[in-house]
Amino acid sequence: MSRIVCFILAVIMAINLKGASTEGFSSHREIIGYVVDENNEPLPGASVRVQGTVLGAVTDTDGKFSVRLNESGNVILQVSFMGYKPVTVESDNITNTPIRLLPSNQQLDEVVVTGSFVERPLKKVPVLTRVVSQRDIQALNPNSIESLLQYELPGVQIGFNSMSQQPEIKYQGMDGEYILFLIDGERVSGEGADHNVDFTRFNIDDIERIEVIKGAHSTIYGSNALGGVINIITKTANRPVSANLSARISNGYGQKYTGSVGVNKYNLTTYTSLTYRTADTYTIGDPESASTTIWGYNIWDFTQKLGYKFNEKISADLKFTNYWNQKDIRTGRLYQEYNRDYTLGAKIKYLPATSHQITIGYMFDNFWKDHHSFRADSTALNYRNIRQTPRIDYAGKFGNVSINVGSEGDIEYLKHYMFKDSTHYTNHAVAFYGQGEWTPIAELDIVAGLRADWHQKYKWHLTPKLSALYKAWDAVTFRLGYAQGFRSPSLKELYMEYDMGGLGWFMIYGNPNLKPETSNQYSASVEFSRWGLNTSISASHNRFSNKIEYLMLSDGTSDMQYVNADKARTTSIETILRYNFNFGLTLTGSYAFTDDYSNVDGHNTSSTRPHSATFSAMYQKKFKKVSLTASLNGQWGSAFDTYSRSSEADVNGEYAWEKRHYDGRTLVAMNVGATFPRGIYVNLGIDNLFNYKDKATDSSLQTPQRGISFVGTVGLNLADMFKW
C-alpha cells in the first residue's frame, strides 16, 4: 500500500511541476485586501478563503493578504480569526476599505474538520460536535489533557491505573478502547494503561484546539470509534513570523518550559516546538492503611512541521515528532521505565480544480517502552507498537452535493511482554469509505456514508451511517442520526498470555476465537442560538453486540480470559447552556446523564458515574493595549454503586459478588491572566480550589487529587516584542 501511495504521489508531482501554470490556473488575477480588529489595528494571522473553493491566504504582519484566482468577476471571501466573528465580503468591495472583525465568544463560529476531512463551520455540522478552543485552553491553563477534558466535557471520567501508572478514560460510559484519539486526524499508536493511549504524549502547549464527536463514527475512522472521536489539532504557524517562550510552575505538580518558532510566508510554512515538563511523585491516602503513590516523570517533546506550496495546484506537508518520558524510580524496584515515541508523516494536496481536492498521506508512528536494569546496567525493550497508515482521499463539490471518498491502510506491529515469550504479532487491514452530503434546500443537510473494512482475520465488514441537520428557524437547529460502530479485537485481546502477578497468582489469556464488536447508535439533538445565548440538548443510545470483556474462567482457578460477553447498552443525555454578556462575561454550564449497564451474571459491573456536570465563568476585556482574562471552572461527578467479584472464594469455592459505593466529587480551578504590550503574558491560578483529597481506594475511578495547588505561568511573544 505505501509503495502505491508513493508512486501516485510521484506521478502527480511530476505532472504538475512540469505544467503548473496551465490548465485551470492559466489566467490569474489577484485580490488584495486588509484585515483589522475592533480598534482598527492590523490583524496578522487571519484566514481568508474564497467561498466554494479550497483557495485562501493568511494575513501578514500588517494585516494584508492576497489571493490569486483564475476566474474573473466578483467572488465571496470568508474571513475568520480565532476569538472573532467571521465575516463574508464581496471581493469588489474591499479595494479601499479594510475588513473589520469584531470579538466573539460564540463557539459556533469555530471551523472544524473532524467528521469529514474538510473544513466547515461548526454550526453546519450534521453531527453534534464540541470544540475546546485555544481560548478555553488558555483561560483554564491546565497541567494535562486529562484535566482539560474533565473541566470542559461532561460525561468524561479519568481514572488511574496504579499498575501502569497511567490515566484511563471513560466517556459517557465508554472505556478507552471505544474512544479513538487522533492527532491532526491520524490514529495514535501505543498503549499507556489497559486499552488506553499514553495520555502524557499529548503536550498541552502544542494543542491549538480539540474537536470531540460523540458516538459511533466508524464509517470515516474505522475500528475503535464506537464511543466517540477526540481529534487533537496541533499548532502551526498562523502568522508571517512567530516566536514564543513560556514557563509554568506549580507547587507539587511540576514544571513546564516551552519554546516555539514559526514562519508563514513566501509559500513556506514551518513550525518548531520544544518542551520540557516534569511531574512530581506524590502519595494519596493513609500510608499506614491504604495509600496509592503516583510516580512522577521527566518528559521532552519535540515537534517539527514543514509545508510548502509549489503552485496553486499542489502543496506538501511534512511532520516529525519525538516524545521521551523518563519515569521516576519506584521504591523497591531495580529498574527504571522509559516511554518513547516518534512519528513521521507526509501529506500532499492536489487541486485539479477550485472545488476539488485530492489528498495523499502517509503516517509512521513508533511507540515503545524500555526497562533499564540497574543491577545489569542494561536496557531491555519489552513493548513496541508500530502503526503505518497510508491514505488517499478525494473531496469535491457538485452544486448542492459534496462527496468525500477514499481508502486507507493500517499496518500494525505489536511486541508485548504480555505475549508468551514476549513475541510479536502483526495485523494488516484495508478500508474503503465514502460519505456524501446533500443540501436539497438551504435549511436541510443530509449526510450518508458507508465504509468497507477488510481485516486479515475477519475479512470484510460494512459500516453504514446516516444523519441530517434541519434549521427549522434562524435560531433553532435539529440533528438526527444513526451510525453503526465496529471494533475488531486488538492483538493483545487475541493473543495475550500473561502471568498477572509474576508469581503464578493468576493468568490472563487472550482468545483467538473472539468476534468483532458492533454497535448501533441512535442520536438526536436540538440547538438554540440567539441574543448571545447558545443552548442544546442531545440524547444518544448505543447497543453493543459481542462486547469484549475479560471474565474469570469456570475451571476452579482465578485465571481470566477475554470473551464475547453479554450484550451491553449505554444511554446518555447531555445539555449545554452558554450565555455571552455584552460586557465580556461568558457563563457556561453543562450536564450529562449516562445510563451505562454492563450485565454480568445479572449484576451491573459498570463503574460510570451516572451524573456529571461542568461549569465555567470567563471574563475577557481589553483595556487599550492590555487584555485581561479571569476564569472560574468546575467539574462535578455523582456518587454511584457497582458490583465486582470477591478476590477470595467462599467455603464452596465460589467467588461472591460484592457491592461497592463511591462518593461524589467536585473540583474547582481559578485563573487570572493578562496580556501586556510587547507580547508579555502572565497567568496566576489555583487548581483544586477547595482542597479536595481523594481516597486511595478510589484512584481507579479518577485522577488522584492530593489537595490545592498554586500555578504561575509567564509567556513572551517575541514577534510582538520585537515587532517582527
Query: Tell me about the biggest sheet?
Result: 22 strands, antiparallel, barrel
Would you report the number of β strands? 47
CATH top level assignment of the largest domain:
Mainly Beta
Gap between N and C termini: 44 Å
Q: Quickly count the domains.
A: 2
Radius of gyration (CA) equals 26 Å
Give start-end ranges of low-pLDDT stretches.
4-27
Which structural category fits the helices and strands?
A: mainly beta
Tell me which CATH architecture of the largest domain applies here.
Beta Barrel
Shape: globular
Q: Specify the CATH homologous superfamily of the largest domain.
A: TonB-dependent receptor, beta-barrel domain
Report the β-strand fraction as a percent range: over 45%
Give the overall average pLDDT.
Answer: 84
Number of helices: 6
Q: What is the CATH topology descriptor of the largest domain? A: Maltoporin, Chain A
> What fraction, in percent, of the residue positions are helical?
under 10%
